[in-house]
Design brief:
Length: about 80
């Protein structure tokens, strides 16, 4: 019961703070927005790379873990 009361009091004080100091809230939002976009873009890029298998192609391995024919350095295919 006490946690509900303290939660409601905290929400009321937070709402009062947002309404009273709304311009500071807008400033903080505008300052944090580019960071959120940068982080979200990085996560999307990593998810896209993971889904396309680009990482495996960059390392010279196919999806089964074998090296590709062009990457063979044993000298047998020459």
């Amino acid at each position: 019961m006490m946690s509900i009361v303290f939660g409601l009091i905290s929400m009321c004080m937070g709402l009062w703070g947002i309404v009273t100091y709304w311009w500071y809230v807008v400033d903080v939002f505008l300052a944090i927005l580019p960071v959120i976009l940068l982080f979200g873009g990085f996560v999307a890029l990593m998810a896209g790379i993971r889904n396309t298998g680009l990482r495996a192609k960059i390392k010279g391995f196919d999806s089964n873990g074998a090296t590709s024919a062009s990457e063979d350095t044993s000298g047998k295919g020459r």
